[in-house]
Write a structure and sequence with these properties.
Rna Polymerase Sigma Factor, Chain: A, 69% helix
Length: 124
């Protein structure tokens, strides 16, 4: 007979509870609540990390790309409208996150000194 050892762990929140918490955090982040922004980042950490790792093979650049993705997440929260619905927010935010990461990559390759070399190499 197996005995479950919960060790103080509780049941994971239901999907409805998760969506309600996400919507509350989005609305609070729109008003500038830093705790809500932190909660959103925690909710989207796996997505931010995955997108950053797919954009670069250099492990040193993953952190800056995640930071850029956070800015995109905040921009998506700012533009969020209740009619979108919390269940579709991840798809809505994906565009903002990817755009921010892509801009961070393009800024990295157009630094003074490096931009001329990059443009000469690729005809940019």
């Amino acid at each position: 007979m197996k005995i479950a050892l919960n060790l103080g762990q509780t049941e994971p929140p239901s999907r409805a509870t998760h969506l309600r918490a996400m919507e509350q955090n989005i609305l609070a982040a729109q008003k500038g609540d830093w705790n809500a922004k932190g909660n959103l980042v925690r909710m989207f950490t796996a997505l931010l990390t995955s997108l950053a790792e797919k954009r670069t093979a250099d492990r040193a650049q993953v952190g800056p790309l995640i930071e850029a993705g956070k800015l995109g997440l905040y921009a998506a929260a700012k533009k969020y409208k209740h009619s979108i619905g919390a269940e579709r927010f991840q798809i809505f935010a994906l565009e903002f996150i990817e755009k921010s990461m892509d801009q961070a990559i393009s800024r990295r390759f157009t630094k003074p000194g490096f931009g001329a070399w990059f443009a000469g190499l690729f005809g940019r």
